[in-house]
Amino acid sequence: MTDHKIFHMPFAKVYPMYVQKAERKNRTQAEVDEVICWLTGYSQEGLQEQVAAGNDFTTFFAQAPNMNPNVALIKGVVCGVRVEDIEHPLMRNIRYMDKLIDELAKGKAMEKILRQRVLALAGSD
């Protein structure tokens, strides 16, 4: 796969767009942060440090403390491509984040965005 421009784009440049997208649909920055922290394992402080540092997406994901083990539960289409079919790991992680923000902006319940209901059902076996 070629080296996409988004890999070198500062996360801090895209983060406000995620927040704006959510806020236009009456969601909050705190919810955006919760989704991003769930996906990447960053604490709130760690997320804000990444934004302040101006790290690109490559560095942002490389330094992520712990990608959520349930990312495989994220399915669907972003930019006309099924996220579960994306082979390049960095692009797939970026699209996972896009998909979660899309779900937030569409008004989906937080427990569904964070795949908690699915986990609760799986744990009841």
Automatic annotation (TrEMBL):
- Matching InterPro entries: SP1917_dom_sf, UCP033199
Q: Tell me which Pfam families the record gives.
A: DUF2200
Query: What is the protein name stated in its UniProt record?
Result: DUF2200 domain-containing protein
Naturally occurring in which organism (per UniProt): Saccharospirillum mangrovi
